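Deviations from the work plan: none for this task. Representative record:
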Amino acid sequence: MIRRISLKTRVLLVLAAIGLGIGIAAPYLFPKYIVGLISLALIGGLFAQSVDLLAGYVGLVTLGQAGISGAAAYGVGYMASKVGAGFPAQIAVGLLTGILASLLFGLMAMRSNDVYFIMITLAQGMIVWGLSIRLYKVTGAENGLTGIPRPEPVNPYWKYYYLVLVVVVLCWMLLGIIVKSPFGASLKGLRESETRMRMLGYNTTAQKLYVFMLAGFFATIAGILLVYLNGFISPSSVVLAASALGVLEAILGGVGTLVGPMIGAFIIVAIQNIVSIYVDRWPTLMGLIFVVVVLFARRGLVGAISDVWNRRQQEVSLEPQSAQ
Amino acid sequence: MTSALPILHVDDVTVRFGGVTAVDGVTLRVERGSRWAVIGPNGAGKTTLFKAISGEVRPTIGRVHLFGADTSRAHPNRKAQRGLGRTYQVSELFQALTVEENMAIAAQARTPSRFHSWRPLRIRGWIDERITSALDQLQISDERFTVVSEMSHGQQRSLEIAIALATKPEVLLLDEPAAGLSAAERRIMKDLVESLPRDLTIVLIEHDMEIALELVDRVLVLDNGKMIAEGNPDEIRSNQHVQDVYLKS
């Protein structure tokens, strides 16, 4: 049976194909600096997607996600620069520290909601930041951990870029499956009414822990990719601003979607690294863009575009009737 | 009185909030397949009694037995997993989702698939049948793909019940299903509740005494948290104390 694909789906598929095409051709099209920025934006986008899995799909805004990605990055950095372990051990320890941090933070936060959840996750992020400053022998304190080499097979910048592209696209697909799964549907229910979910038979505490750990897993992957991209990790990667940036990227692009946080990450990376060359007051510009989006496009850029599209489609469908 | 184990047994339950006693020594024995109404004026403790049954509040004193097991300290989700369904006086629906999505979340609630995260949710087979059946029963099949926030109040009240039915409960607590409806809509809602399967045990709270008495076999009357009467609808209609309480309110 051939299913008819809607115009919206066809447009989205074409846009996805163009995006993927540019992504694959990027090292041939752009200089090294820009390819590095695209890598950074892809990793930032994955991080923002992990934030959005909680904020957009469950309604739990987190300000501690950088603590989880940072814990994973420190795990890799410690094994690389202090222990001198091989890449499998570095990555294994990175995954382990990130997932353990997710479990620990999830157990602490899963019984809270709304502003209490924000405050608990904020505190969790601050704990990781505090440890990164205090545990000099493990984290290098303010100096951080430097000289973290990339795995040899992907050491050249363009090879590492392709690794980032493949991992981010795979994670994006996994996230897509999760949000469309029975569990994903139940997350939307949790966002809408936890009372009703409990009365339907859902263990909402377990649901929250599970989704927190899933989000933490994707933040962990982002943290590991970032530490190999930069070659170092320092407390600046786990400060509150790093977590808040993920939230801003999700809001700017559109919460409750997976493409929104990715678009938000590309915009913010572009402002921070390209617009800032020409505009001294680029943080002001970023703030203004954020204010405009919150005031005039509450569902982010993706939501605004979707609204305009839907309105246009309605007008088109009404045109033949009004012409008669 | 039958000697069979009641499907729901509220045994001398008291619920206190600080110095306020919302429910005071209430006992209720609900047999399988029977229909009960809990009536009383505002503040009588009806909804608090429901909350004690569903596990949303814990009884300060007394026990709640469900399906023969002591569930006094069980969480609402555990009771729902055992087969208790509940609707709310103020609709607790997933407003931003479609009717079908609401129903799908409910239909999978008592199955292991609710935690499946590595395959897409497909509304077909048993899940589709269950959704279709519940929507047909409540006469809102035409709204299947409507976003809940765009539905009328009356349709949302029907969806409240349809969602509870989608979990296949054995005991259904209906908290004022006709709340906020016009007189005509109340009659429709009464017919809908009346048409629910007879093997489904129903306990309902209804402010409209006449509608409540037409729907049930047995009635419990509360006032100020205390039981003031229990009996069949005719006995309750002719009870002077009940009439006084309702006239007073």
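Residues 93-168 of chain B form one domain.
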